[in-house]
Automatic annotation (TrEMBL):
Keywords: Signal
InterPro entries, alphabetized: GP_PDE_dom, PLC-like_Pdiesterase_TIM-brl
Name of the protein in its database record: Glycerophosphodiester phosphodiesterase
Residue span, GP-PDE domain: 41-358
Signal peptide: 1-23
PANTHER family per record: GLYCEROPHOSPHODIESTER PHOSPHODIESTERASE, CYTOPLASMIC, GLYCEROPHOSPHORYL DIESTER PHOSPHODIESTERASE
Keyword Signal listed: yes
Superkingdom as given in the UniProt entry: Bacteria
Amino acid sequence: MPVTFTKNALLLSLLLALGQAQAASEPAPSALAIRSGIPHPAVIAHRGASFDAPESTAAAYTLARDLGADYLELDLQRSKDGVLFALHDNTLQRTTDVARKFPERKDSPANAFTMAELKTLDAGTWFNTAYPDRARPSYAGLNILTLDEIIDIAQGNPQHQPGLYIETKEPKQFPGIEHDLKAKLQERGWLIPAGSAVAKSEPAVGQGPGKVVLQTFEKSSLELLQKEMPQVPKILLLWVGEGNIEPVSKVTFAESGEKDKAAYYAKQAPKDKAEFQRWVDYAKAQGAIGTGPSAALTQGGDQSYADLVHPWMNRYTHDQGLLVHVYTIDDAVDYQKVMEAGVDGIFTNRASELLKFYKRPAAVSVDQVLKNNGY
Ligand code: G3P
Ligand code: CA
């Protein structure tokens, strides 16, 4: 019936207009980032400039800083004697000579070692072996770093002070680490008092309200971080799998018959649209300013996961007033793809390449910075 059609059409137009008005009521992502003191788009140096130097070491962090990265990313753990330090893996085998120095404890978690013990380990030689084309003799003997030392590095170049992008790694292993982190940031003057600084323009990241960003995959840690440091921007990390977004298929990698994990992960997706949206809604409800989703990489590799940056996903996240910082991307083809999909910043092992892509190239080469820093 024409009349009914007209009524329905009218109702539909009204609903659409209402939906658009609601979406439009959220600030543009760039404005949102600036309000939080976060550069847009953001260059997040994943474990430092870890393509060119051993991850989470002084070589990698000073390189990322001096190239001009916005943030030094780190995975936070706590030693047996209570010192906060940076390490990605749960154990020390992949990135240190623990098997030689502590053969009987080589499979123990890193947190079973005191800081003095951790400091005896060589966290650089593995890189020279794994990547001979990028090896440097000076990498041999590099140390695991404490959070204090990474703060020193972040503050160490008067020309450019990057912020810190800190992940509570496996936080259930470290009860109270959110409180310890707050205490350390406060002691070092890295906690900006609540409400004291709302950025009006593109922020100088190492000085403004976005100088620290906190990130976690764990809902319980996000809640504790929000309780301890409500004024500090937080990101809920997203991936598809146990403890995070429920997958559409429960088939394991072993059962899948896929040749490598990247191929397996590339076929993973959230159970349905609502499941993805629930996680974004949760992040917002807990006070996060954004999400940190995974991406499927063109070249595959061990940092290629489910594609959680489809344009509809980013649109939904933006419509909730949240930012999207995607991990971990190193190739221009993928930088282009995720930027077109609408992300607001990228975790990268190759800060130099991402800075070039964003037309903010470093004034000096990777090689020159490494040489300047004694590597
Ligand atoms: O922190 C997010 C990003 O670093 C990806 O996770 O496993 O490298 O810490 P991961
Ligand atoms: Ca991390």
